Amino acid sequence: MTPFDILKILRKGRIIEYEVKILEGDSLPEITSAFAQTGIISPEEFMELARDIDLLEIHDIKAPSIEGYIYPDTYSIPKGMDAEEALDIMISKMSEKLTDKIHARMQELGMTENLLLTLASIIEKEAVIDSERSLISAVYHNRLRKNMLLQADPTAIYGVKSSKERITLSDLKRKTVYNTYVNKGLPPGPIASPSIKSITAALYPANVPYLYFVAQDDRSHQFSETGAQHEEAVKRYRLMKQEKMNSTKEGSNGNGPS
What is the DSSP string of 230-244? Predict the structure, then answer.
């Protein structure tokens, strides 16, 4: 097409666009897939671009990749725009969300942008119920203050397998730079795209003494202050899960209540 042809299309509003949807909690594999569906860039090229040193320097990203620096939203990408330009827009939107108020609070807490987005991304992967975000944040803030291992399950499988897969004991023992079961402190960078809700929670943890939490069947969490309380909560959860499994088996054998 000639420049004149393109100008005519622009004037008529006939711009072909691709929709790229980035969900809250999406990691690079999901974002790569969203881009690959448009045909703008291949998965291999996208992963290479996501770790491109020049791109990271342009946006002053102090992390191994752009992971966590893309704001979750639905983006309309005009045909002809390359992937780097599209990423510039997405990264810039995250920067816009980090307002002066947020930066002031970061300074108050002694947090860098990378530390904030890294903690927020872990909260994003752990929280299901919005009201629990500040509680989960408090657990990690408390553990960091006490120099305890964070033991965040999503970090154990980051870059290894999908977060939708079951986490095993061997996952928790795996030695990677992101696994907070084997390394103290936060990982070197975010593990997902955090929402503004998780970013806010990371900045304003609840004023509670909790150091532990365990998931429940309703996707909420049981929070505990001591190791003994946590072990008891885990036992109750496992017992409840076993009773539920036994009940299901009895029902399938025709022995359950009708």
Answer: HHHHHHHHHHHHHHH
